[in-house]
Design goal:
The structure holds two protein chains of two kinds.
Chain A (H helix, E strand, L loop, with lengths): L4 H13 L4 H14 L13 E3 L4 E9 L2 E8 L2 H14 L2 E2 H6 L4 H4 L4 H4 L1 H4 L1 H17 L1
Antiparallel strand pairs in A: 1-2, 2-3, 3-4
Chain B lengths: L4 H6 L7 E2 L2 E2 L1 E2 L10 H14 L9 H21 L7 E4 L2 H16 L5 E5 L8 H10 L2 E5 L9 H7 L4 E7 L11 H10 L3 E5 L18 E5 L10 E5 L1 H6 L10 E5 L2 E4 L13 H15 L3 H20 L4 E4 L8 E6 L4 H10 L2 E2 L1 E3 L4 H6 L5 E5 L6 H18 L1
Parallel strand pairs in B: 3-15, 5-6, 5-7, 7-8, 8-9
Antiparallel strand pairs in B: 1-2, 4-10, 9-10, 11-12, 13-14, 14-17, 16-17
Classes of the chains: A alpha+beta, B alpha/beta.
Chain lengths: 140, 406
Amino acid sequence: MAQSIQETQEELIDEFGLFDDWADKYEYLIDLGKKLPSLSEAFKTEENVIKGCQSRVWLHAERRGDLIVFEADSEAVIVKGMISMLIRVLSNHTAQEIMQADLYFIDQIGMSQHLAQTRSNGLVSMVKQMKNYALAFSAK
Amino acid sequence: MTLDIHKIRQDFPVLDQQVNGAPLIYFDNAATTQKPKSVIDALSHYYASDNANIHRGIHALAERATTAFELTRTKLKDFLNAPSSDQVILTSGTTASINLVAQTFGRANFSKGDKILISNLEHHSNIVPWQMIAEEKGAVIEVIPVDEDGVLDVAAYRNLLDATVKLVAVNHVSNAIGTINPIAEMIELAHAHGAKVLIDGAQSVAHLEVDVQALDIDFFAFSAHKLFGPTGVGVLYGKRELLESMPPYQGGGEMIKEVSFEGTTYNELPYKFEAGTPNIADVIAFSAAIDYVNGFSKEVLFKQELALLAYATEQLKAIPGLRIIGNAPDKIAVISFVMDGLHPQDMGVLLDKFGIAIRTGHHCVQPLMKRFGLLGTCRASFAFYNTFEEIDLFVKALRRTINMLQ
């Protein structure tokens, strides 16, 4: 049985709990961003792009059996680090689980600022879009 | 005269604070300047003691508010050396001032095939209003190019000028890269071809002297909030014969002389263009901002800013992989830069963690970014209240930021 959305969130909160200062936290986040594989160019389409005011995010979703698998990318590495965590939490879950997910870990690890910058980075739209995919797949 | 920066900084309460555990370093002055305490006090004094609607009331408060409101207009007349205060129209900002000209002067004067010249340096606010009216009237927009340093190509401008050009709309200073444009020469050239000129002064008024008569400017637009005043107040200066020939903009109260269902006669300048209750409080508080800058010599303030610019430029140039965008010989204290392989947004996010406010992104000049093959830059913009120590801290934080991201 795969890890639940809540378990992954707790795991991330534990990981970030190890850092005392913001610089260590951000170095870890940047590292997550760098390690996230780039989205294949074929998926970097106009259809998959979420335009922020300063950077773009691309989100691709696929159905594998009952599960939805997300892949995503961004030009900005800190945004990419955030994406990496969102994928870790939400990917490989059922539409129902994704739709019901309450992403409390972002606030708990002190990164809610990146979802507050609504116009600049497209992350809020990305989360919305992940849930929209789940809704669309569940309706099929 | 030397500036006592320490004392000046005490006039700006916002500067004295910690952001993310570090002392705030505010290098986003091209976006908006901070406000001296006298402006903040004027705003609160107005609401606490004088608040009333202006121009029509006959009671004491209305009279005090009207007098204070009109005093700002008079100070603006002097500030710009306008011939008369009724040529100073109060709007909500530079954007509103430009839209006003586009929708009135443009509507009355542009016809099919006419040309509007703008430059590659323009802010979206000095592009889109012209595109809207050009589309409606069948006029054509042509663009004065800039060179690799971000300097306007005056030779190309000369070639673009002909009898079909009805208006030249350019900024005095580029918001994204700081270039100071040779507006005196550009205005003379435009007038020689019978074209009128609108100068977007949003980025210049806080730094350079502007004498609308000496420069023979037809229209001059700027915002209070970039001149240490409140947000929501803008200015449009215009030559009398132009303003008088222009139809009113928005309809409503204040702009009328007499209204009947058969027809309406319009008020005189400047009220013809000031429909509705204006932003009374902020206009009145703007007066304190004008007084504040008038308390200094603009030349001395600008010299201080240029010293900061030179110091910062030298230090930034020493960072390997960093490229400064915009190297015009005549610049205000704005430095736009990019770092090979790094995204400006990432740099802005990390600098904020060090308590440093800069601007990142396209700065509302997407065509200029495209000109340099960029999606955005980091921009540090200084005001006279910034210090050399702040630049040292900024450069240190920037080096650390680059390290973290590389």
